[in-house]
Amino acid sequence: MISQPPRRYALGATCVTFNDVGRVLIARRRSPERWELPGGLVDPGEAFHDAATRETYEETGVHVKVHGLVGVYQHPSRGILAGIFIATALSGEPRPTAESIAAEWADVEDALTRLHPLYRPRLEDALTARASVTLRVHEGTEVLSLFEATHV
């Protein structure tokens, strides 16, 4: 139960990234210290999916390509709406960063065991998604980018 609803929501973006052998990218945050899927807040003026790729690199050192949106998750007590994106690794090796004390590729079952409970359903949803959700970024009638509902 929420005692005081947030005055405004912040937008977050998280990547569920897989490598070429099906392992998932996870990061152990510095604060709070726990295993998570890489992600963070969207900067003003930043595209939703660009924030997911930026945050993944900042937390893991891995460059990724987003190719689908699983869904949007609401965290009322913290005032966050988070988009969960599916991505594939392009380059880089997981490493500690200023934001994470560790980053690594994990087998899915291992990741489900180690991830903080907030992130387990997000990974499970990404694994069971039959299609991504359409994400249309536009200014008026001009489409800036589009992820159509496709098979994930």
UniProtKB/TrEMBL annotation:
Nudix hydrolase domain location: 8-128
Q: Which UniProt keywords apply?
A: Hydrolase
A family per Pfam: NUDIX
User: Can the keyword Signal be found in this entry's annotation?
Assistant: no
Please tell me whether the keyword Hydrolase is annotated for this protein: yes
Note the CDD domains from the entry.
NUDIX_Hydrolase
The cofactor(s) it depends on are:
Mg(2+)
Q: Which GO terms describe its molecular function?
A: hydrolase activity
PROSITE patterns (UniProt xref): NUDIX, NUDIX_BOX
Q: Which family does it belong to?
A: Belongs to the Nudix hydrolase family.
What protein am I looking at? RNA pyrophosphohydrolase
